[in-house]
């Protein structure tokens, strides 16, 4: 089932409007393709999605080192000069990423992202691809 684009955009806007300081929200596939975005420009969203593919791979590799874990990355928070970057697993083969300025409160952001994923996580998915084709 595919969620209508307008509804999807509204939900991303709701996340952005609900936390002060959000600059861009991106939904991406595990292989780094942008699925949807809110805020910022499309080229920046594409760059963020591509970078997230590598970041989720690295986070997953680290996650396998935790003996009691399941080896899956759940959330990554990076504090950078002037703001924060957040990435969260959003469904099978899909991730939710947010760029925010220093005004954003990390706890609030994580909670709002989790709420969004819980409400629409089954719609934030990307089918696996092989050789550039959907499997």
From TrEMBL:
Cross-referenced SMART domains: Robl_LC7 (SM00960)
Domain Roadblock/LAMTOR2: 9-100
A Pfam family reported for this protein in Swiss-Prot or TrEMBL: Robl_LC7
SUPFAM superfamilies: Roadblock/LC7 domain (SSF103196)
InterPro entries: Mycobact_SerProt_Inhib_Rv3364c, Roadblock/LAMTOR2_dom
Superkingdom, taxonomy of origin: Bacteria
Name of this protein: Roadblock/LC7 domain-containing protein
């Amino acid at each position: 089932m595919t969620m209508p684009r307008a509804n999807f955009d509204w939900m991303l806007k709701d996340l952005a409007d609900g936390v002060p300081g959000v600059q861009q929200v991106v939904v991406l596939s595990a292989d780094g393709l942008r699925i949807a975005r809110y805020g910022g420009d499309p080229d920046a969203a594409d760059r963020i999605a591509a970078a997230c593919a590598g970041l989720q791979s690295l986070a997953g590799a680290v996650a396998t080192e935790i003996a009691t874990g399941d080896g899956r990355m759940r959330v990554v928070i990076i504090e950078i000069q002037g703001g924060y970057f957040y990435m969260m697993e959003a469904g099978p083969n899909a991730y939710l990423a947010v760029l925010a300025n220093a005004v954003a409160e990390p706890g609030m952001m994580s909670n709002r992202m989790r709420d969004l994923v819980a409400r629409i996580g089954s719609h934030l998915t990307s089918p696996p691809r092989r050789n550039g084709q959907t499997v």
